[in-house]
Design goal:
CATH topology of the largest domain: Aldehyde Dehydrogenase, Chain A, domain 1
CATH class of the largest domain: Alpha Beta
Bound molecules: nicotinamide-adenine-dinucleotide
Largest sheet: 7 strands, mixed
Helix content: 25-40%
Shape: globular
Low-confidence stretches: none
Distance between the termini: 88 Å
CATH architecture of the largest domain: 3-Layer(aba) Sandwich
Strand content: 15-25%
């Protein structure tokens, strides 16, 4: 598995509108960079407002006049399973392209492609099993509710695990009978293009799925403002989410917001420390530390803090950083030089705030080019420091200690984010009590970040609005209509017959 092999799958990236691969109307192109070297990989069609409009019109036609929303769930499911099969057949190209474009180690992108394909299969199954509800009113009324597709959905995605997050939205959106316009992140366009080709080969009707590449402030903003778009599912930074909600308010869209995080890992002294250590490292340093649910603040009970810190240091220093195409690599380069500079800036902030860079903090000597940063541990971090409060979104772990359960809960919750929390203890009552007190959308107890696709996914506070996953995705991507039917002539209050 080499970079050369990955490059053999690269093409000049077009837009995908109305079932055709096309150039952007204005003819613009931008470059996508290889994070290992910051050299250009290829160019990408730069969609603008006119292209978004074309794509929304195509999606609108497919919804208003086409077969897709009128098919049965089982019929749509057949198409979606075909997409899953084709993705699995194309696994090598998809994972190589993802590694080339994002710098995520190849061993990890392989797993992500499998999970991305699984989303299509999972939501295909759900499309067949989703059902309405009935509310019989003892012989007088039969009331029921049903799920119906809403219309055109705008899907806006980030660069950190692009293919998986795109499929996570596309699969339920289409399974529910909507049509979609995807605006992928500009720093990671390659797999969205490959996916468009797969969806095209799977034979979905033209216009059901469209991809418009381009910048957030232009193509993304045009999608948000478009009156023909009814739903908007966004994953990205909290500030971008705020802007999008403001801009979409004029056309009153329904929003699903999956935003940033600064998730705590609370390690009590009675925990299985071996497991806690493994999970803390996995949760922070896989996906190059660019994971929304990363446990980026490890809080350790004081009596075991020194021991845990020593063990963390040894393991973090041993993380293999380098060429993401090497099967042994655990940590690759960050996505883009701008992001690299931002993450490095946090190391300066850490020093200024009085934290210590206990491990890492430098460009690895063997990687002079690209956006590399060693796996980094910040020790001596205190609650309230910026490195404890703000999302760094790189391989930088902040280590804190706490005196007792109350302090642990206070420190864990005292951030504006509320995406995930991880709790390590052998005390069952404490595990449940602390889980209940976490201000987070998702809590894992004695477990790394693994999630069954049926479970609700989403954040609280500044980490998001709404839930996706399992039937929660259908609640977002569907209109729930209720129908009330009288079974016998009902009593009707009389109006306007005073003179009779
Ligand atoms: P970002 O907010 O910069 O960009 C995300 C997407 O929004 C991109 O496609 C971008 O082009 C687009 N965009 C930017 N400005 C826009 C605008 N004004 N109108 C419409 N679209 C616009 O985020 P990012 O840097 O790509 O991703 C990293 C962030 O995503 C992190 O904060 C991370 O925590 C978050 N994230 C959250 C989850 C989750 O499920 N909660 C998952 C993954 C990533």
């Amino acid at each position: 598995m080499t970079e050369e092999r990955a490059r053999s799958y690269v093409r000049e990236v077009p837009l995908y509108i109305g079932g055709e691969f096309v150039e952007a109307g204005a003819g613009g192109r931008f470059v996508t960079l290889n994070p290992s070297s910051n050299t250009p990989i290829t160019t990408v069609a730069e969609g603008t407002t006119a292209d978004i409009d074309r794509a929304v019109q195509a999606a609108r036609r497919a919804f208003d006049e086409g077969s897709w929303p009128r098919m049965t769930g089982a019929e749509r499911a057949r198409y979606l399973r075909r997409v899953a099969d084709l993705m699995e057949e194309d696994q090598e190209a998809l994972s190589l392209l993802e590694t080339l474009d994002c710098g995520i180690p190849i061993a990890q992108t392989r797993g992500q492609v499998a999970r991305a394909a699984e989303n299509f299969r999972f939501f295909a199954d759900m499309a067949q099993h989703m059902t309405g509800e009935t509310y019989p009113v003892e012989g007088r009324y039969l009331n029921y509710s049903m799920l119906q597709p809403v219309g055109v959905a705008g899907l806006i995605t980030p660069w950190n695990t692009p293919l998986m997050l795109e499929c996570w939205k596309i699969a339920p959106c289409l399974a529910a009978g909507n049509t979609a316009v995807l605006k992928p992140a500009e720093w990671s366009p390659l797999t969205a293009d490959r996916l468009a080709a797969i969806i095209d080969r799977a034979g979905l009707p033209a216009g059901v799925f469209n991809v418009v590449h381009g910048y957030g402030e232009t193509a993304g903003a045009a999608l948000v403002a478009h009156p023909g778009v009814r739903l908007l599912s966004f994953t990205g930074e909290t500030e971008t989410g705020r802007t999008i909600m403001r801009n979409g308010a004029q056309t009153l869209k329904r929003f699903s917001m999956e935003l940033g995080g600064k998730s705590p890992v609370i390690v009590f002294a009675d925990a299985d420390l071996d497991q806690a250590l493994d999970a803390a490292l996995f949760g922070m340093f896989t996906l190059n530390g660019e994971r929304c649910t990363a446990g980026s603040r490890v809080l350790v009970e004081a009596s075991v803090a020194a021991e845990f810190e020593e063990r963390l240091k040894a393991r973090i220093a041993a993380i293999r950083t380098g060429d993401p195409f090497s099967p042994d690599t655990e940590l690759g380069p960050l996505i883009h030089p701008e992001h690299h500079a931002r993450v490095m800036g946090y190391l300066d902030i850490a020093r200024e705030e009085g934290a210590t860079i206990a491990v890492g903090g430098r460009r690895p000597p063997a990687c002079p080019d690209g956006n590399y940063l060693e796996a980094t541990l910040l020790a001596g971090v205190k609650p309230g420091m910026r490195v404890e409060q703000e999302e760094i979104f790189g391989p930088v772990l902040s280590l804190l200690s706490f005196a007792d359960e109350e302090a642990a809960v206070r420190i864990a919750n005292d951030v504006r984010y509320g995406l995930a929390a991880y709790i390590w203890t052998r005390d069952v009552s404490r595990a449940h009590n602390v889980a209940a007190r976490m201000e987070a959308g998702m809590v894992w107890v004695n477990s790394p970040n693994v999630r069954d696709l049926r479970t609700p996914f989403g954040g609280s506070k500044d980490s998001g609005i709404g839930r996706e996953g399992g039937h929660y995705s259908f609640e977002f991507y569907c209109e729930r209509k209720s129908v009330q039917v009288a079974l016998q002539a009902p009593p009707i209050p009389v109006v306007g017959r005073m003179g009779d």
